[in-house]
Design a protein that fits this description.
This protein is mainly beta. It is about 10% helix and about 45% strand. It is built from 3 helices and 16 strands. Strands 7, 8, 9, 10, 11, 12 and 13 form a 7-stranded mixed beta sheet that branches. A 6-stranded mixed beta sheet has the order 3-2-1-6-5-4. A 3-stranded antiparallel beta sheet has the order 14-15-16, with helices on one face. The longest helix has 10 residues. It is globular.
Length: about 210
């Protein structure tokens, strides 16, 4: 497949007023799989070579579609299958905002989170997610290649529709430093408060 041709098919499908193309409204014929992979580390590869242009990766990320466990890139006239080793997105940055709209601070700044704060995540493709609803974050066991010996579940967050992101290891550790620790004697949880909702970042089962 010619990626340049695919790129041309997407011209005019988004705008400043509507930054994401209406992927859910497109149901073109399936044209087969292509040798495009989103690796565990969030990088995109085509025919075994990394796609170096960030703008091209961002464009293709905007037309990702997931059906069951399969991933596709779609245009109004074409649909092709791709390989995703874990999730198509990786959370690489975060900051905290006050709910009244003022930014409380970036990750480098010491900020004391309060109940009127919202955590904002940013993916490797520039997508932003405001952590506001309980269904936006869940714990999953990651792929074996990046598991710890105990196969500990780690946080994944919904980016849009049924597309999810895994927290980059550095991001995860930074958020754990912000987390509150609680224990009921058999289970220890690490959680943060965002938009008045509690989000569990990790759990440790205590052995007798």
């Amino acid at each position: 497949m010619d990626l340049t041709k695919f790129q041309q098919q997407l011209k005019g499908t988004s705008s400043k007023a509507r930054p994401l193309p209406p992927v859910d409204q497109w149901n073109p014929d399936f044209c087969g799989d292509i040798n495009l992979t989103i690796a565990l580390d969030g990088r995109w590869f085509y025919e075994g070579s990394p796609i170096g242009r960030a703008s091209l990766v961002e464009l293709f990320a905007s037309v990702l579609k997931r059906e069951g466990d399969k991933y596709f890139l779609v245009t109004p006239v074409e649909k092709v299958g791709i390989t995703v080793e874990d999730t198509p997105f990786l959370i690489t940055q975060w900051h905290i905002e006050r709910n009244e709209g003022g930014e409380a601070g970036e990750v480098e700044i010491e900020v004391e989170p309060t109940s009127d704060c919202t955590y904002v995540f940013t993916t490797q493709t520039g997508d932003t997610i405001r952590l506001e609803r309980e269904d936006q974050l869940e714990l999953r066991v990651p792929p074996q290649a990046i598991q710890d010996p105990q196969a500990t579940p780690i946080p994944y967050t919904r980016v849009r529709r049924n597309l999810w992101a895994r927290l980059h290891q550095n991001t995860y550790y930074q958020l754990l430093e912000q987390a509150e620790e609680s224990s009921d004697g058999s289970n220890t949880q690490f959680s943060i408060q965002s938009s008045g909702t509690t989000f569990v970042l990790g759990e440790i089962l205590q052995t007798p």
